Amino acid sequence: METFKISELAREFDITTRSIRFYEDVGLLQPERQGNTRIYQRRDKIRLKLILRGKRLGFSLAEIRELFDLYDTNQSSSQLNKMLNIIDTKQEVLQRQLEDINVVMTELQIARDKCLQALNTQVANNQHKP
């Protein structure tokens, strides 16, 4: 079974070992211990990847923990429905953000094009001056 040291995970995900220990402190990771050494399994590595991705997408650590808890337990219909509600809500937020980003990207491109056009006009005018 493949295992990882905390320093290996920190290096791979470009985060500090302190961050990984924090995720352990709040119950999102549960590495095995051999004395003072933490031994992370493949499951821990996957969970760390999901934590970091969730944070980038705007999930709070509480939401991430809730999703992990729902996933880790024997899932009843009510738990699955709750998980679906969390996912649906987050998808709606992300979809709105994506639409906002697309609008801003279009506006930035228009502004960029106008700047380039103005620069080209200035260069052309300067070339025609004696």
UniProtKB/TrEMBL annotation:
Look up keyword Transcription regulation and say if it applies: yes
Q: Which GO terms describe its molecular function?
A: DNA binding; DNA-binding transcription factor activity
Kindly state which keywords UniProt assigns to this record, in alphabetical order: DNA-binding, Transcription, Transcription regulation
Pfam families recorded: MerR, MerR-DNA-bind
UniProt keyword annotation of Transcription regulation present: yes
Domain named HTH merR-type is located at: 3-70
Name this protein carries in UniProt: Putative transcriptional regulator
